């Protein structure tokens, strides 16, 4: 593995740890990632977890519409580390009336 790949993986590992910590602690300071505050991820969590996720609610629609979806593509491999099932992202976006980026 090249030096750049190792640095890239380390940055994402750190990001995954930070996102996980921010989500687990409700009072945590929100961290903006791709126009989404990490605390706002909770508004969509039910729709992207579990075997029979419910449809996203109005608060989740707001979060999804504000997100820079293409920006999220590099994070896809790390979504499961914060409890998000990557295979549920495309249906969530469709339910919000949004087109998924090609990576999802």
TrEMBL record:
Pfam families per UniProt: LTP_2
Keywords from the UniProt entry: Signal
Signal sequence bounds: 1-28
GO molecular function per UniProt: fatty acid binding
Highest taxon of the lineage: Eukaryota
UniProt keyword Cell division, yes or no: no
GO biological process annotation, one example: systemic acquired resistance
InterPro entries assigned to the protein according to its UniProt record, in alphabetical order: Bifun_inhib/LTP/seed_sf, Bifunc_inhib/LTP/seed_store, DIR1-like, NsLTP-like
Residues of the Bifunctional inhibitor/plant lipid transfer protein/seed storage helical domain: 17-101
Name of the protein in its database record: Bifunctional inhibitor/plant lipid transfer protein/seed storage helical domain-containing protein
């Amino acid at each position: 593995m090249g030096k750049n790949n190792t640095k890239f993986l380390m940055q994402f590992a750190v990001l995954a740890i930070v996102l996980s910590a921010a989500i687990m602690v409700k009072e945590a300071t929100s961290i903006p990632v791709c126009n989404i505050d990490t605390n706002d991820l909770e508004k969509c969590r039910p729709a992207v977890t579990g075997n029979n996720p419910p449809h996203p609610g109005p608060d989740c629609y707001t979060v999804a519409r504000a997100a820079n979806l293409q920006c999220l593509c590099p994070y896809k491999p790390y979504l499961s580390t914060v409890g998000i099932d990557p295979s549920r992202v495309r249906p969530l976006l469709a339910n919000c009336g949004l087109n998924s980026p090609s990576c999802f």
